[in-house]
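Q: What does the predicted 3D structure of Helix-turn-helix domain-containing protein look like?
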Amino acid sequence: MSSKRERGGPVTDLSTQTTFGAHLRQSRQAADLSLRQLAARVGYDHSYLSQVERGQRPGSADLARLCDRELGTGDQLTGTFERRPPRTERQTADPSEPAWQGLVAADQTIAFDDFRSTPPAVLLPELVSELQLLQARGVDAVQVAELSILIAETLTGLGERRSARRWWWAAHASAVGDGEALVCAREAISGLAERRPLPPLLELADKAVAQQSPSAVPHAARALVLAELGRREETQQALQLLVGVGDETVVTAARPTDWMPYQLHSAEGRVCARLGYGVAGCVLLERARELCPEHWIGERARIDLALAESLAVAGEVPAGLATALRVLVELPDEWRDLWVDDAADRVLRVVPESERGAVELRRLLTTKGRSVGSGSSWR
């Protein structure tokens, strides 16, 4: 009996005459996979893939690459995606639509991709400019809050903590409904990297969870803060809730202020490491790394450093230090920010000071003038 791929004709012919969505659908059907099956393999939500196939979403280079790998189509889907009309042409179809729409409401996934693939110092003025445009147009408060979160997190990464606080305040002031839960949760997570006192961060995380948002981010924030406080039993309970909510939550690339699957796995892995479950943390962080696009340099650096921490906790100290050193040596300067340095510092906190490689890691971190690895309490 001939296979579906044979009955459907050569896929190579399709790549030159169909859209990316149509090519993806035909390739999936030829491989005898349902939307849900393919979505599970590539780490995207099935409803998002359905929208891509119907032409309602543009897809992304990362999605095309992953689908090529899972469907055995070589680089055909990637080629089809790369031959799509230039972004400027797609945007000019509706000149009244503001440029931030694809970033905040994510009607265009490619804009979300730009957000993750742009160094923070370059991204910041663009975000502020888009917010000014947004406010001038009188757009609703939800979108103002979402963009304010992105600005606050970017400022945090750049070390501008006082300015970041003002933007967190703006996000709180603009948030409505369950949006306040997301603001509280993201601020709590940001506060960990800033080394803010932990009790107020736990209050933020508790407030986020109490609002029963459908997002898993509030549970991630609470688990991470409890782990930092050293409240082991409560952290274990919070981790169980995070895993349960994460499994039930529909996570797509639709909102930059919500989380994608790789971010949930990363948060779970970090909590496991801080509970002393190094092996489990490594498994979760390896999965996060698989799902995180390769060109999202800053995100992957943070995952790799969290993996280095888990390796050290699991007893693989030399491997953990080697991973952390590789990240800091290879990472371009424009991606070295507070988030990265905090993740690297956490590696130092779980290895003996006398360990070979620890001195070099400390030297690399202090080249930016920060004092790290002191193990000081935040409580």
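A (community wiki): The structure tokens above were generated from the sequence. The chain has 23 helices and no strands. The longest helix spans residues 120-136.
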